[in-house]
Structures are given as structure tokens and as C-alpha cells.
Give the backbone structure.
Amino acid sequence: MRRRVAIIGAGMTLFRRRMLETGKELSFEAAKMALDAAGLTLKDIESVVEGSAPDAFDGIHMKGEYLIDGSGGIGKPYQRVYVGGGTGVFTPVAGWWNVASGLYDTCLCVAEEKMSPLHPHPQYAFWSIFDQILERPLGTTLLWIFSLEMRRYMHKYGIKEEEIAEVAVKNKGNAVDHPCAQLGAKITVDDVMRSEPICSPVKRLDVSPPSDGAAAVILASEKVAKKLTDQPVWLDGVGWTLDSTHWTNRDLAYPEYVEKAAKMAYKMAGIKNPRKEIDIAEPYDPFDYKELHHLEGLQLAGKGEAPKLAIEGVSQRDGDMPVCPSGGLLGVGNPIAAAGMMKVCECFWQLRGEAGKRQVKKDAHTAVAQAWGDLMQVGTVTVMRS
Amino acid sequence: MPFKIGIVGVGYAGFDTMTPGLSTRELMFEAASRAYADAGIDPRKDVQSFICCTEDFWEGISITDEYMPDQLGAVLRPLCTVSSDGLVGVATACMHIASGLADVAVVESHSKASDVVNPNEIMSFGFDPVYNRHLDVDPRFLAGLEMTRYLKDSGTKREYCADVAVKNKKNALSNTRGVYGTNLSRETVLASPNAAAPLTELESSKVIDGSIVMVLASAEKAKKLGDHTVWVRGIGWSSDTPVIEDRDLATAAYAEQAAARAYKMADVRAPVSAFDLAEVDDTYSYKELQHLEALKLAAKGKAGRMVDSGSFDRNGKLPVNASGGSLGVGHLLEATGLHRLLEAILQLRGQAGQLQIPGARKAVVQSWRGIPTATGAVAVLGN
């Protein structure tokens, strides 16, 4: 029988291009902060889930094993789950099944990424995600396929680069108020347009940075959560979907895998009209156009209509449906797995009214966090309620 | 309510030193097709969750789940990687089913070891980059250290470890999947070259290729799917510290903890007499002894003598690795736990052919993730 699961604590480290701490230490810091927030110690935790993306960043085989002590997994049932860039939001999903299944009452979920050990640039790790025979000989980078996707999105719906740039302006601006943020800044659409092209139409300020960092949440069964806090945030819906390996055969203008994942999570949470019922959205925004793409996949905007949300103010922090009030990956930073978890933490803090200067104006009760990854292929979604 | 999740389909492909005619994805396709046929399901309609147990470095690909959906029939469906041994994947499937997320869940794991040019180097990349990796030695040095410590602390005779290799390789001769089956004497095993002293090469399992797929279902759904369901009655998994200097090298603490959880779920109070057979990890000969003691199938320090006296032979009191284990059949990297499980399922179904243990009804299965980890899982099965 399914049990209701609550988030009862959250924590995160600074997000920075190069942190002096090891991955183990980053995991420890985030886990400790989440435990302290929940008023628990490691002794109270029954199982542990770790999320971390490619081993190639660290050059450590079986990275999940290496991170066990930092994330508090010694002597406990410990799992490392992994769906590329979707890992961050997927880590609490894994925690959810640890608790919802009735196997464990408390679960510590830690997402960690240390991209900086890879020299000269973490982007090199992504070369090894491509097909050995068909794609690697081309010297492919992730930026290539994102520029293809961005161009397709713009072409299909007649969207201008300037409209997409509004997302970068909004998110980097929001991040100014985030104490962990790496790239918070007050910029203009003009700044984005004039920034250096990396792989046209993708420009420097359209892209999130490589980062090191970790984030964590504590999950508990309903019975335990009610004993520990007056303000549980319920993890009421989870969903994930993986599309075909063959990204070349995909509709690049619309993320069907996000739609399917969102529908799975909405169905579980009993959400029938997402645009009306969801107060805050934290879609994955490693690139500014991706936020728009994902808002459409999440059924929070019609196809090709997401750009209007930022321009008309709907998705601003004081708007009707704030999107990435944290500052997102564009502003807070993008330590792959930790970035998705940061979004779940943000929803937790927003729904508890603990987001400080970032607190949205609207009285918010329902939030959705989403991440995406692999070969433009996976969608992971969580729905949270206060 | 007692824990009860059904394994309703199994399929496998490969089980050879090389599978040059098949790519990894083709190997998976074959195993999956057989498992789906065995369970009588259509993956595109009947399965709500797919779980793959893989590690990037073994695959030579970063983010390996990218390459998993198509051949499993999992496109645009929930699929994820659990970076662990296949038995932890089975635990994950059990949680998906117990939480109501899925009625039917699929677990896949494989080895395409013949594609790996430098397995020792990859294994070395599992060691701590600062403290251990610079030791430019065969990564099995850790097995040598563990074995030495185990022999000393438990008072086990060195020769008994060789007996494990003799027993398992002999068992594998009757197993159609066995690649390294052979009749050897204890002396031959002891005289083979050192892998990492005192461990010899004939006591160290060798990798093979293969893919294994399991179909799991809720108790209600399992009733509708075939008539050879094997039930998971308890499952546990655990990890000791990754810092090798901090471990007690003599015992397998992870297996003790995992077994304690699985036994509690399945209400197993006297493990010694609870099972008709055991399939335990025997990546290295001494590991089988360590694991038997951790699973409480032998008293501390007594497993070796019991192997010597034939208690764990196929016709003994408790057949252990009647299949031939990893020493006899071959080692399947992260699919090794699923291989242990596969052999136990075939026994409980009465489909083990020449290996069949008459009247087998209850089994315990255990996995270990290999060097340099201290992670393992245990499952209690019944039919």
C-alpha cells in the first residue's frame, strides 16, 4: 500500500566553479544541513539515496561507492540512482519509493556533483555520452545539440532570440537573492544578445555555468513527519520518462518525455489542471530556451507560448506563477545532479515560507520541480504541496 | 502483512567468454525478449517501470541509461539506472511494486566484459584517488589482504579456500551456462599462479559476457501471469565504509547487515535450517566462506571445514552454488547478483536440469559488488 511521503528538511552548499571541498565533503555539508533543519541526526535515518551524474567528471569508477561515507550511507541500505541531468529531481523520487513502499520511515537523499576535477573543462565528459560509432568521431559537444534544439524551437513557433533572453535576465536576477548562487546578476536582454556566441544561436549568457556543489532533503513517512514538524511539505507526485536513444529521430521542438513524466506525477498528485493548480514551477533551465521548452512539456504553457510568461510578468517572482524563483541553473549554478535537487529544496523553502528575500508574493501551496538530461531524453518531475 | 513480490519471468543471453556476434544492446534485446515471453507480457503495455544496473566505466559510455530504452521496449516509459549490483535493482523493483508505482517492473543487468580492453585499470579507478590509486598494482591486492586477514582471524585452513574453487568448478560442468567448469584437485588450485598472494588465479573468477532480465509483479498480478512464480519474501542491501583502511577485512559486514534485513522481512529465524539451497557470491574463493558465515549459514570460522566435509556439495546438507557460481560459470560484473538469482529461480521452478536439487522450495541469494566495494545484497526466495 502506498504511503504518503513528506519532505521535512533541506540543505545545500554554495554552488561555485571550483570548490576546495571533495565530493564527499560537499555531500556531508548538504546532508548535515538537511538533518539539522529536520532536527534529526544520522542515527534517525533508515536509508540513504545518493544522486550523482557521470563518473567521468571525477574520474572515479563506481562514484556512488566512493561517496557513501560523505552522504551518511555507512551500514545503511544505500542506493545511487542516475539518469544523467535528470538525476537531481530523480534522487528524491528514489527516496520517495524507499518510504512510500513501507520499507523505511526516513530517507536521506543527497545529490552531489563535482565537475571541476575534469581538465581542462567538464564539457569533455559529455563527449563520452555520444554513440561511439555514429557520433563521437564528429567531436560532438552538448552545445551542438542544444543549438539545434534551440533553433528548431525558434523556427517552429517563430520565437525570437530576444524573447528567449528574457529568461536569462529573470533567472540571473532572481539569483541575486540566493545566498548560494554562483552567477546572480542584474543584466539586460541587450547584454545577453551581445554576449559571445558559443554555438549559434546559443550565446554565453544563454548558458548555465559548470559548478561544484551538493544539495539534500530528508524524507519521512506521514506518521514520522507529523511527529517532527508542523510544516511538512508533501511529496505527492513523482514521475519520470526516458525517450529513445535516437535523438536524431525526435521532435526537437517539444519534449514529449517531459509531458509523459509530468502527466505521471500529476495523476499521482491528483492534479487535473496544472496551470491553475500549480503556484510555483522550478523547471530545469541549463539554457534559457530549456525553461520555456520544459514549461510547455509540464503543461504550464501552450506549445510555443511559454516566452510570453516572462515577458508579461507571469513567471516573475511577483507574478501569478513564479518560475525559477531560486534563480535556476542560469543564476544559482549547475552542478548537474545537485542543481535538480536545489530546485526541490527551493520548492520546500518556498512552500514553508522560508525563502527569505526570494519568497514569492503569491500565497503558494503547490509547486513542481523538473529536471532533464541524457541525450535530450529524460524528464523527471516531482509535485510538492504544503 | 508478509512481504511477497513475484518474479514471473526470467530471460538471459550470452554466457560466454566473448559474444562477438552481438552488441551490448542486441544481447539485452535477446535476454529481454526471452524474459517477456517467459512472463507472457508485452513490455509496451504491461510494464510500468524498467531498472538497469550498470556502471559507466564498464560500458565505456557516460550516462549509460541513454542506451537502454529501445531494446527493452521502454521508449517513453519510466526507466532508470541504479548504479549497483542487479540484486539492488531487484530491491528497487520490489519498492516500485510495494509503493503501488508499478504492477509489473523489469530489471536488467549485463556484462560485455569482452569489450573491455583494460579491466584491471577500470577496477583500479574504483579506489580512492588520493590514498590508494597510486599503488600501481593488480587491484586484487585488496582480495589478497582480505583473504589473509580472514584466514588468520577465523583460523580457517588455507586449503579450504581451494576446496571452494574445486567444488564450484566441478558443479559448473553440469551447467549449460558454465564456461569455466572443470575437474581439478586441491593441489592444482593451490599450485596455480598467484593472483594476489595467497589468492591464486584458479580461486579468482574470470569475467564473461551475458545479459539477464527479470520480470517482477505484485502478488495480485503474478497470479495472472504464468504458473511458475518465485516469490521474493525478503530483501536487504547494505554498504560498509568505502575507506578500506577502516574496514574489518576479516568479515563481510555488508552481507551480515543485508541478511539481517532480508531475514527479518521474511521472518527467517534459523537461517542454518531455513533453506534448501544458497547461491552466494564467490568472486574469489575465500569470499564464499566469508559470505556463508555472514549469512549465518555456517558458524564463524566453520565455513571452510564444512566445504571440506562436503556439507555444501550439491548432494550435501545445504547445496551452495550448485550452479557453479562465478568461479565455475564466470563473473558477469554488475549482473552477477542477477545470475545468482537466476540459478536459484531455475532450481525453485524445477527447471535446473542436471543441476536440479530435488524438492527445492526455499533459497537465499547474495551478491557483492566486487573490489574495492563493501556493498552487497541478500534476497530470500520461496515458491
About this structure: Chain B has a mean pLDDT of 97. The radius of gyration of chain B is 19 Å. Chain B touches chain A through 57 residues (CB under 8 Å).
